[in-house]
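Recall that a protein's primary structure is simply its ordered list of amino acids. Everything else, from secondary elements to tertiary packing, is in principle encoded there. The following example makes that idea concrete.
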Amino acid sequence: MIRIGWVMKKLSFLVSLTNDDNDYQQEQAAAAEKAARRLGVDIQIIHANNDAVAQSQQLLHFIQGSASAPPDAIVFEPAGGTGFPQVARAAAAADIGWVVLNYEADYLAKLRLTYNVPVFSISSDHEEIGRIQGKQFAALLPQGGSVLYLEGPANSSAAKERTAGMTRTKPANIQVKTIRANWTEQSAYRAVSSWLRLSTSQETRIDLVGAQDDSMAAGARKAFAEIAEGERERWLKIPFTGCDGLPKTGQAWVRSGLLTATIYVRPNTDLALEMLTEAIRTGVQAPERTLTAPESVPSLQELMTRTAKADSGKLYRSASV
């Protein structure tokens, strides 16, 4: 066990998030603020506006003493495809703890051996999120079909892992057409609107729209709602699914029918602050990597039951005509 050292003063943490437009990032901020009040620690939350360069500069500003006082630790979720290993070393060398959220940083083990500060990562199990999503597609399209799939940015490890998991569990008779967006409703709206303007999109059969984020699913639905009236009704009847499943957005949208399904991904800033506070106050290093488990909303069994009932209803109506 690594002894971190006793700290009697009030702890201060910096929380760096990717943006403040996405519902999950907003929940990350809210969870951090609530945990800080409960733990009796100070926090400052900053946002990178999805700009990795800006995020690294922001973090160095606090590490190098440009701020009034350096934090005891930094909790950050990468805005791009890098976990900032050089910035991490600078933080640890300055006796600042380092926690990475939702990203697999391979440099943590070396930092933990070299420096006497808390260093660890906490992540949603993104591959499992993708596996659940692939199973949702199977439950909603038992006869197979085509999915319009909204992925996160190409440099996002979370997006890559979710896609890999989805690909592993979706049936071979489900084909996937991918469009990229940037974890926000507006970016997905623009991406899907551009795709709908292509002549090839009118010839493409889509049976389900799946997104790696609930806000992107909402943006896609908004784009489909603006197409010509005759086509709009057909598009909006197909299932829309997302991820993150927060109570006030994704789960509420499932209850209202805006989404057919989502995947609950708990925020993890609160867990990060709890583990940091414990590590610093007790002097015991936290585990190097912690994964949180996602859940299908509704359950996969319920989705299969609903689909079977809907298919039975279609057969009954067809036989009655």
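The two ends are 73 Å apart (CA to CA). The chain has two domains: 12-124+267-292, 127-264+298-307.
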